[in-house]
Amino acid sequence: MLSNLWKKGTSFLGSEFAIMGGAMSWVSERNLVSAISNAGGFGVIACGAMSPDLLEKEIIETQKLTSKPFGVNLITMHPNLSELIDVCIERKVSHMVLAGGLPTKSSIEKIKNVGIKVMCFAPSLSLAKRLVKIGVDALIIEGMEAGGHIGPVSTSVLAQEILPHLKNEQIPVFVAGGIGRGEMIVSYLKMGASGCQIGTLFVCTNESIAHKNFKEVFIKSAARNAVSSVQVSADFSVIPVRAIANKASDDFVEHQREVIDKYQKGEISKEDGQLEIEKFWAGALRRAVIEGDVETGSLMAGQSVGMVDKEKPVKEVVNMLVQQANNCIENKSIEVENPESK
């Protein structure tokens, strides 16, 4: 039974289903997070660049909308990380996800000492083992099929690399990146995962505050449209980000070429050139998600976007995944709608 397969995950999260909502900046806020938790999943607030005051308000408002457990995702490079942790402690958050870099042992101990469970991303087996040693309570392994900032390895390869080696550990492991159907969840559970994390499928839900233009692009897009950012020159690094290609994607490539040209002519230093490239996307995600600028904004999306066919309630998405998973386990024939070709 599905309940047995992900029992370790549901026990850890305190939810009916071991389906975590991926923390997506500007999207994973009180409305979506509470809806996921109320539907039996586990919502996660994306703190992103929020100030401690803003995060506190978001937690309070989320707690008004659900009595179920939910988590908070913090970026370890945030300049006010310690204060953000204090807010989570004061507001009695049950789980915290530390992302964007290796957390310090002191940060983990500070969180665990008050009974909050700590989750971290493990992009490799060696780092997974290291995180286990320093006391992390659960791991998330996320492959390059995911939306937003990504690593170089696919979800399926990471799962094969990491899950078999952690089977004898008590630590729960959640798999993320490109998951769009319940059958895929079952396959990872049978490999030893405790649950999954899903982001892209929740963007076009009724409860998501994403702009209608943003949602429309998701509904129209195929998996091949969600591509990784392009780096033009080895002299200037580009952080890999998966997003739906648009005008901004083309403009970014041209912008890099212009910066490279100025650098080669001696008009700017390498450091200033790198800053110019990094500043290109400043505020781009907010422009797309909140303002609906889908031409010059950033359309961060995972490759499972091809399985998003319409706007629907969060509960319907969660129930669909659970039904597909149960059907897979019971070897029932699964009817698949034939959506219009994307």
From TrEMBL:
Database matches in SUPFAM superfamilies: Inosine monophosphate dehydrogenase (IMPDH)
Superkingdom to which the source organism belongs: Bacteria
InterPro entries with a match to the protein in the record: Aldolase_TIM, NMO
Pfam family, one: NMO
Keywords: Flavoprotein, FMN, Monooxygenase, Oxidoreductase
GO MF terms held by the record: nitronate monooxygenase activity
Name under which the protein is recorded: Nitronate monooxygenase
Organism expressing this protein natively: Candidatus Wolbachia massiliensis
